[in-house]
Specification:
There is one protein chain. With about 325 residues, the protein is an alpha/beta fold. It is built from ten helices and 18 strands. The protein has helices at about 40-45, 85-90, 130-135, 140-155, 170-180, 195-200, 230-240, 260-265, 275-290, 305-315, and strands spanning about 1-10, 10-15, 25-35, 55, 60-65, 75, 80, 100, 115-120, 125, 160-165, 185-190, 205-210, 220-225, 240-245, 270, 300, 320-325. Strands 3, 5, 6, 9, 10, 17 and 18 form a seven-stranded mixed beta sheet that branches. Strands 13-12-11-14-15-16 form a six-stranded parallel beta sheet, with helices on both faces. Helix 4 crosses helix 5 (about 170-180) and helix 4 crosses helix 9 (about 275-290). The longest helix has 17 residues, at about 140-155. The protein starts with a strand and ends with a strand.
Length: about 325
């Protein structure tokens, strides 16, 4: 098969790779669409020791089952593979499974390829009216759905306000998910003017540049979809006393947290990793039902042009919250 292979910092090549061989209980999937995630970009820059070269990246995927009883069925893929038997899995928190794997990290190759193998329990059927590229958004939006569900379980949604830091797919997905959970007053902070214009049209939230943020403003919920020291500083500054900060982004490993303010103002700071199986299923259902809007903020490119797409993202030349590569 052909695949986009990460060979080292800022080096990707579209070339031949071994075809995947499904194990017991797995399906062979012809990949139709796969989004570029921030974690793919971290690996591309050489900032993720969990993703050593050479490796096929990509985990936001949808495709078609090849062979078996479900041959030709269109599916979206939950890339998080768990043991299913530990206490966390049994309690519904498979995202915390100590034995979890995710495609695009060894030992599992990713989905920037023509073919992928994945356990049958990790796929959800796509209705005929939903495109592969929109179905592939289930993974990044599920991250925001998970954070929004946790946040709204900790604070009342009645009259609640929210600040989302970052207007990429996870930040935008967080804002759309917050609206689904009853938070109607949401502001997305996004410095890229072209992206901000797209984000503004994607839902009922507002999108502003950093200079427009009221220095005296406060929010019941702050979702940091960036994860840099500077964004954590903003989150700690703008969370209301008694409020909640949900930290999704993995931009930097440390810095920016104000433990004194968190303590004195009784602000909850919670790390949030991916999603539970139920969160993924509910996100997919919301996409299929049209509950998260038209989802027309995607830019499609060919997988063979993936290296250029990564380069453009690196140079901040991309306005769309999500680039999706199609093999």
């Amino acid at each position: 098969m052909k695949a986009l292979i990460y060979d080292g910092p800022e080096t990707l090549e579209f070339r031949d790779a071994p075809d995947p061989v499904p194990q017991d209980g797995e399906l062979l999937i012809r990949v139709e669409a796969c989004g570029i995630c921030g974690s793919d970009m971290h690996a591309y820059l050489g900032h993720d020791e969990r993703r050593p070269a050479p490796l096929i990246l990509g985990h936001e995927a949808a495709g078609t089952i090849s062979g078996g009883e479900r041959d030709a069925e269109r599916v979206t893929i939950n890339p998080l593979v768990t043991c299913g038997t530990c206490a966390d899995c049994v309690s519904g928190r498979g995202n915390l499974c100590a034995n979890r794997q995710i495609i695009s990290m060894p030992p599992r190759e990713g989905a920037f390829a023509q073919w992928l193998s994945i356990p049958e329990t990790n796929v959800i059927k796509i209705p005929d009216h939903v495109s592969f590229e929109k179905a592939a958004l289930a993974e990044p939006i599920a991250c925001g759905w998970h954070a929004s569900r946790l946040a709204t379980s900790l604070v009342s949604t009645h009259g609640a306000s929210a600040l989302v830091i970052g207007g990429g797919a996870i930040g935008l997905g967080s804002a759309l998910s917050l609206a689904n959970f009853g938070v109607k007053d949401t502001v997305i902070l996004e410095p890229n003017a072209d992206r901000r214009a797209i984000v503004e049209q994607a839902g009922e939230h507002r999108a502003i540049e950093p200079d427009q943020l009221d220095p005296n403003g406060q929010f019941d919920i702050v979702i940091d979809a960036v994860g840099y020291s500077s964004s954590r500083t903003l989150a700690c500054q703008y969370a209301r006393p008694g409020g909640v900060i949900m930290h999704i982004g993995l931009g930097e490993a440390s810095g920016g947290i104000d433990p004194r303010r968190l303590t004195l103002q009784e602000i909850t700071f919670m790390g949030t990793y991916t999603y539970t199986p139920e969160d993924f299923q509910n996100t997919a259902a919301a996409i299929f039902n049209g509950d998260l809007g038209s989802l027309d903020w995607i830019e499609m490119r060919d997988l063979k042009d993936g290296a250029a797409a990564f380069s453009d993202l690196r140079a901040h030349k991309v306005a769309s919250p999500k680039i999706i590569l199609a093999p």
